[in-house]
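stuck on whats below:

***
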Amino acid sequence: MKPMGRDFYDRPADAVAKDLLGKYLVHDRDAKVRIGKIVETEAYLGSHDLASHSSKKKTRRTEVMFGPSGFAYVYLVYGMHHLLNVVTGPGENASAVLIRALEPVKNLEDRTRGPGLVCRAMNIDKSVNGLDLTGSRLYIAAGPETGDFNIAEKPRIGVGYAGSWAQEPLRFFISASPYVSKLK
């Protein structure tokens, strides 16, 4: 499998979020390659999006979001769950896409229905924060399927603090997938 090129990521987050569906997340770590098919994502549109971490300005934690597209943004939530985001563009737009759920493909024995479970199953932690996703250690690749599926759009989960942004339909998932974290 070949990693997606930088131009794939250097587009608006909502477009990338939809196009990530059906792609394969690959992590080669500790002599074990883990692969999962992406079935659910959430788009965070940039500093004007009040649900996005970038809306709170650039910090040590969020600085990777303010850089070029195609890099991993990984952070710890609730002191126990790592979450993987893909930095998107265009340019240095401080936008990203959260990977919410995977369909297990190879070497995934744990649950993958939820962003914290995705990282646990894929052995992703803060050590890959800022990693270039066009490399060979952690990347996203096109799968063998044609991508012929229906995409559902719903509001994001857990962003009630973001006012009207909480109701924006920026969560995308393959509607027929049994691996989606929440159908609401």
Summary: The first helix runs from residue 6 to 9. The radius of gyration is 15 Å. The chain has a mean pLDDT of 94.
